[in-house]
Amino acid sequence: MTGWSCSRRASSRLEPYEPKGSRTVPRGEGGRKAILLPDYLSQYLSQYLSQEYALDALVEYAAVPDDPHREVPNPVWAALDAKRRQAYAQLERLQAEYGLEAFTNEEEQRRTMRGFKIAQSKLGQRLGRAWEQVQQLLKRRAAVPRRVPVQSLTEEPVVKLAPERKHLTNVIKIAAYQAESDLLRLVAPHYRRAGDEGRTLIQSALSSAADLEVTQTELRVTLAPRSSPHRTRAIAALCEELNRASVCFPGSHLRLRYAIRGTH
User: Fold this and answer.
1) Which of 1, 41, 11 is nearest to 178 (CA)?
2) Which burial class, exposed, middle or buried, applies to 220 when counting CB atoms under 10 A from its CB (0-12, 13-18, 19+)?
3) Are the CB atoms for 222 and 210 separated by under 8 Å?
4) Looking at the chain, which terminus has fewer C-beta neighbours within 10 angstroms, N or C?
């Protein structure tokens, strides 16, 4: 299998059989052709797609009925767990204070543990009450289900956003991300800062102005120069890489030929 490695905003392939960390394995139909992704890359990919491709944006506001028996997190359980965490944090602070008093205890004044407990009785009582509060909250939380049917939380009909258009737009966005990644791999040998700025360079080139010229056999796309000479050279090298692929414009026999204005 071939994995992926991530450096800040850029992605690059790992050579096969390199040591790899923990992985999330999204599988295709029938479990074949599984794509191995490190867990940290899955998180990076999700964050990048959300920021740069608006993967979480609403496409439409239409709603369709949802399964009323679908389980969701129980807000009562979550509230009790939040109180338990606060109580446990208070318990840890009191334990630390009690331990510090024991560590700094002068044996000449309090030679026995009984004497220490008497001297620190107020702190010990606070510690005991904090312990009891944590135990009570644990019992209350254990009596509440962690997940409940969604219909139990509302009297209104259970609905969800219509998924069809959202799925379609997500497929298009992921395909665009894959195309961006392929272009990044092509430009990386020609751009020293590809690991940090490669995707930004590709995005700026794709959104730049261009001249179109149609001949009998070619569709010529001439891009505007970039903001600096080294970026212009990198995109010019990318154009040469794409020209070697001899790709035709979809639905025609015209071969696509890319160039940067002023670099001929």
Assistant:
1) 11
2) middle
3) yes
4) C
Which residues are 144's β-sheet partners? none
CB 144 within 8 A of CB 80: yes
Strands in 210-214's sheet, in edge-to-edge order, are: 210-214, 218-223, 255-260
pLDDT digits (tens, 9 = 90+) for 26-39: 443 344 444 444 56
Spatial separation of the C-alpha atoms in residues 215 and 42, rounded to whole Å: 44
Nearest-angstrom CA–CA distance, 257 and 246: 8
Q: Is 203 helix (H, G, I), strand (E, B) or coil?
A: helix
Q: Is the per-residue pLDDT at 250 higher than 50? A: yes
pTM reported for the whole predicted model: 0.53
The alpha helices in 104-144, defined as continuous H runs, are 113-119, 121-142
Q: Which positions ≥6 away from 82 have C-beta within 8 Å?
A: none
Angle ∠(257,262,263) on CA atoms, nearest 5: 65
Shortest CA distance to 225 belongs to which of 259, 182, 191, 179? Answer: 259
Which residues touch 85 (CB under 8 Å, ≥6 apart)? none
**Structure-token pair, residue 6:** 């991530």
Does residue 37 contact residue 4 with C-beta atoms inside 8 Å? Answer: yes
* Alpha carbon distance 105, 116 (integer Å): 8
pLDDT digits (tens, 9 = 90+) for 110-158: 667 777 788 788 888 999 999 999 999 999 999 999 999 999 998 889 9
Domain ranges of the chain: 71-150
DSSP class of residue 190 equals G
- Phi and psi at 219, nearest 5°, equal -115, 110
